Amino acid sequence: MENCTALFEQAQTAAKQLAQLESSAIQRVLNAVADRILEQSASLLEANAQDLTRMAPDDPRYDRLKLTEERLAGIAHDMRNVASLPSPLGLTLDQTTRPNGMTITKVSVPFGVIGIIYEARPNVGFDCFALCFKSGNAVILKGGTDALCSNQAIVALIRDTLSAHNIDPNTVQLLPADHAATTEMLGAVGYIDLVIPRGSQRLIRYVRDNARVPVIETGAGICHTYFDRAGDKVKGALIVNNAKTRRVSVCNALDCLLIHRERLSDLPIICNMLADSNVILYADREAWEALQSHYPRPLLREATPDSYGTEFLDYKMAIRTVGSLEEAIEHIARYSSKHSEAIVSEDSAACELFTRCVDAACVYCNVSTAFTDGAQFGLGAEIGISTQKLHARGPMALRELTSYKYVICGDGQIRG
């Protein structure tokens, strides 16, 4: 406990010093980190390779864990994007002058110290540092054992860069990878202002149920696409294939296709490209019959109750037949994690009803759910996808990592 408490205190001290940094200094540091990512890519990949040796290549998490030259270049690019964005701090969110002459200004401010708990995704360390640093927050990272070597190398690179710019390296901390450190983080009242879990439903549920500090739920994505009776089958096939197969291990990947009963004859066309990626389909009886002569039999299975409401994170997808738009909305309401949901339809009234009635952070019309991403939304990057409704919802970028305070100015006013 003493070791983690010392780290928490150091992060608090660093957060107070961040308030004195100019925006230009923050931008220089982020660009310097991006430079070092490219300069030290060989050592980062070497550390990552050590982690990969401990995970089976067919594990759905393997793709999340893996770093490549291309991915490191993308991380550096995202770092520069964040550096170039306007500062979210000190913004006037609202202002009013009262009849007595007092001016009340609502101003954006950092949270202070943000804790991030995540699993086998080493890129999270870079993304979270960039966003927290740009928004004036110190960050305490708690990764898992799967990415231990990668996380250590990433945090060492960042801390070295901070030190080189005469900034407290404790602005970013990496906790031990054991379970005890998670318990300490979740109970760090007075030290950590906010905890954000990134990972599986199991991790998020554990954090939510055990934390004594404020939590924002992010990550778990049980995503649906509804193909309406007025859907375009060409658009539908492209959208479904992209949402399912672009990257199966991410939270915006498609898990369940809902199809209107009147369009079952088009289901083979909609699912045709999925066979090229060996996607296993768990279809209800009607969908199974529509596909049985058109989809590889080893990849076609009958759905069970467990097929729905499952985040597969794999080349697997459920299919359910519905008789109406309303039935599709009811299914989503029952099984959704409130992450990303989509409709494919040329009926504007159906699209309008779907977007109004579906309760999710991101609701799409004729677009792949793969776009639920901070960079794709023009936010530079994201610290996670919030699936709750308090404070922030959807991709959490710079503005979502700030709170606010009221600044009241006057000329000697007193209250009678």
From TrEMBL:
UniProt-listed Gene3D superfamilies: Aldehyde Dehydrogenase, Chain A, domain 1, Aldehyde Dehydrogenase, Chain A, domain 2
Protein's gene: proA
Species annotation: Candidatus Rikenella faecigallinarum
Protein's name according to its UniProt entry: Gamma-glutamyl phosphate reductase
Pathway assignment: Amino-acid biosynthesis; L-proline biosynthesis; L-glutamate 5-semialdehyde from L-glutamate: step 2/2
Any one Gene Ontology molecular-function term assigned to this protein's record: glutamate-5-semialdehyde dehydrogenase activity
Its biological purpose: Catalyzes the NADPH-dependent reduction of L-glutamate 5-phosphate into L-glutamate 5-semialdehyde and phosphate. The product spontaneously undergoes cyclization to form 1-pyrroline-5-carboxylate.
Record-annotated Aldehyde dehydrogenase domain positions: 5-262
Subcellular location: Cytoplasm
Entry's Gene Ontology BP terms: L-proline biosynthetic process
Lineage: superkingdom: Bacteria
Family: Belongs to the gamma-glutamyl phosphate reductase family.
CDD domains linked: ALDH_F18-19_ProA-GPR
GO cellular component, one term: cytoplasm
EC number: 1.2.1.41
Phylogenetic classification of the source organism: Bacteria, Pseudomonadati, Bacteroidota, Bacteroidia, Bacteroidales
SUPFAM superfamilies, per database record: ALDH-like (SSF53720)
Keywords annotated in UniProt: Amino-acid biosynthesis, Cytoplasm, NADP, Oxidoreductase, Proline biosynthesis
Reactions catalysed, as given in the entry: L-glutamate 5-semialdehyde + phosphate + NADP(+) = L-glutamyl 5-phosphate + NADPH + H(+)
Pfam families: Aldedh (PF00171)
